[in-house]
Write a structure and sequence with these properties.
- The chain has 135 residues and is of the alpha+beta class.
- It has helices at 71-85, 111-131, and strands at 14-21, 46-53, 58-64, 92-96.
- Strands 1-2-3-4 form a 4-stranded mixed beta sheet, covered by helices on one side.
- The longest helix is centred in the last third of the chain and has 21 residues, at 111-131.
């Protein structure tokens, strides 16, 4: 017994992992250390996603190579993932690596990067939901 609840140790959990390249093709404004634009790519940036499905709920853990994600951008993406994929926003944990060598993402960032990062995250989660083992 843990905190008054029983947990089955024989529960089946399906999992999927993905590493999705989100490196922009062109020069971008970078976040932090004053206004500056990228001059090339030293290291690519990624969404790293873990999906866990216990048969009742799906949990999605995301780590993205950006400096920060605004609460408004998180809410927008979480809402779309809920509407399109049925994953409850409280089961979407999105964190960032806090690099100052990646484009700014969110309402104050460049709109095309904001839309691209969120769109790619939703596409990756959607694609890998289909890859979860069926049994």
């Amino acid at each position: 017994m843990v905190f008054g609840q029983r947990f089955s140790m024989a529960q089946n959990i399906k999992a999927a992992v993905v590493k999705m390249d989100i490196t922009p093709d062109d020069s971008q404004w970078l976040l932090g250390y004053g206004p500056r634009k990228s001059t090339g790519v030293h290291d690519r940036i990624y969404h790293r996603i873990l999906l866990l499905d216990d048969g009742e709920e799906i949990f999605c853990l995301v780590s993205t190579d950006i400096c920060l994600v605004s609460p408004a951008e998180y809410d927008r993406v979480a809402s779309r993932i809920h509407d399109e994929l049925g994953i409850d926003p409280e089961n979407l944990w999105w964190t960032v690596t806090h690099t100052h060598s990646a484009p700014e993402v969110g309402p104050s960032g460049l709109p095309e990067i904001t839309q691209t990062a969120g769109k790619e995250l939703i596409e990756a989660v959607s694609g890998y939901l289909e890859e979860l083992p069926k049994e």
